[in-house]
Amino acid sequence: NAGVTQTPKFQVLKTGQSMTLQCAQDMNHEYMSWYRQDPGMGLRLIHYSVGAGITDQGEVPNGYNVSRSTTEDFPLRLLSAAPSQTSVYFCASSYYRRMGMAEAFFGQGTRLTVV
Amino acid sequence: KNEVEQSPQNLTAQEGEFITINCSYSVGISALHWLQQHPGGGIVSLFMLSSGKKKHGRLIATINIQEKHSSLHITASHPRDSAVYICAVDSGAGNKLVFGAGTILRVKS
Question: Helix count (H) and strand count (E) of chain B?
């Protein structure tokens, strides 16, 4: 059971380049989300999905795009990378509950540097 | 003011000491999560609680809903407990977690 798998682990981009961070889970979780972690700040929600075909914006969605075509995969796209997007990105999945999230499972993170 | 405040920000302890990390929040919640992040590593869920107290090994988590406060305790601390401990709250609306900034714990042998 692999859990939540994120790729790549490290990435350096030039300003203006685009790329996709991959996230896959094998636990049949309905809920998936992307967070960014910056020094001195808590994780902040970028986008989330409560099921295949359903996505919504979080706290800091600008510059990012997501889609959810399958239950397993939830890729995060950087449309035109900017230095402000230098961060560590985490994907997470959970069972969906009407009254809030169940235990969350996180990927190992992607450390992204935009130069 | 952040919705979730953790204290202390940094904590250094000697091996064997009893450790307490605090989390205060300002919103109504359906659940509170405690997470652990090792250096360079991923994030692992330790506890999810909505009332009372939970225990797992040397870790104990408590929550007081009326006071909007939770504590994470580590008994008989060990250097392998060195990590960042993160508190997150779930308001129950839209399945969104709001995170504290984390407490960096270092346990010296």
Answer: 0, 11
- Tens digit of each residue's pLDDT, chain B (109 residues): 678 999 999 999 999 999 999 999 998 888 899 999 998 778 999 999 888 999 999 999 999 999 999 999 999 999 999 999 999 998 766 567 889 999 999 999 9
List the single residue in A with minimal CA-CA distance to B100. Answer: A42
**In DSSP terms, which residues pair with B36 in a beta bridge?**
B44, B85
Residue with tokens 């450390």: A111
**Interface touch A96/B90, C-beta < 8 Å:** no
Distances in Å between the alpha carbon of A102 and those of A40, A92, B89?
Answer: 26, 12, 12
Q: Which residues of A touch B35 (CB under 8 A)?
A: 104, 106
